[in-house]
Amino acid sequence: MDADEDVAPAVRSILDAARQRDSPAADRVSVNPRSLDDAVAAADADGRTPVIAEVKPTSPTTEGTRTDDPVELARAMVDGGAAALSVLTEPEHFGGSPEYLERVREAVDVPVLRKDFLLREAQLDAVAADVVLLIARFVGDDLADLLAAARDRGFQVLVEVHTREELERAVDAGANFVGVNNRDLAKLEVDLATFEDVAAHARDRTDATLIAESGVSTPDDVRRMRRAGADALLIGSAIMDYDTDERSSSSPRSASPREDDGADPAATVRENTERLTTAESQRGDNE
């Protein structure tokens, strides 16, 4: 399987950087993880939508870079009801770092996902996290071995898929957490129907925790993904871009952060998080 086949140039650049990145000269990581399943269940029991809020300074699909303290933003997300956090550690294209994750994980008591493009086992040892991401398309036939290597270190593993075929591979590898990415990596376009299609297929194939990823911007989007079977949602830009205006997922929107208008970044991130974690207790305009 050619992981680079038909992917957008921006994604190919990310993969090239991941392949060239030196594996850490570090000891083998051993983790006693905070349970992601327990965090999702606790949010549900508390009447909150289980949201994994993402500390994402920038990305190839956004304009600009957030330079705010990641720890301050992470605490704001937890205060806003986030069940767990995702922290980018990819440096070249997302502005992340293992140090950011270390600082965030020390500062909060919820599970923390390491979001990166991991392609070989040694890259697992860069930093301790509660959950690591493996993207089925990019690790190819190594998925089962990498999943086992991550679990051997104590990590929980989120296996990301985009198609029914990739879901089958994740199920065959024994994934307990499956993230369905609504973003097409060939065109970088987002379609929430992707999760609906894959989740419908997953119902008869696995009891894994299903997480909807990408494109969730509004309370309506949250409710739509939950109706489709999402146990949790991973949300980054809609929380990080500081835009709390109500939007529909089909309306044009800028992905760039708003210009500084004097608002407290952490307070706005908390507000954005709370708006999405309470979506199911709000009345939808289309319901």
UniProtKB/TrEMBL annotation:
GO terms for molecular function: indole-3-glycerol-phosphate synthase activity; phosphoribosylanthranilate isomerase activity. This is Indole-3-glycerol phosphate synthase. Keywords: Amino-acid biosynthesis, Aromatic amino acid biosynthesis, Decarboxylase, Lyase, Tryptophan biosynthesis. The keyword Lyase applies. The gene is trpC. It is an enzyme of class 4 (lyase). It catalyses: 1-(2-carboxyphenylamino)-1-deoxy-D-ribulose 5-phosphate + H(+) = (1S,2R)-1-C-(indol-3-yl)glycerol 3-phosphate + CO2 + H2O. It comes from Natronoarchaeum mannanilyticum. HAMAP family: IGPS_A. Pathway: Amino-acid biosynthesis; L-tryptophan biosynthesis; L-tryptophan from chorismate: step 4/5. PROSITE patterns: IGPS (PS00614). One of its GO terms (biological process) is L-tryptophan biosynthetic process.
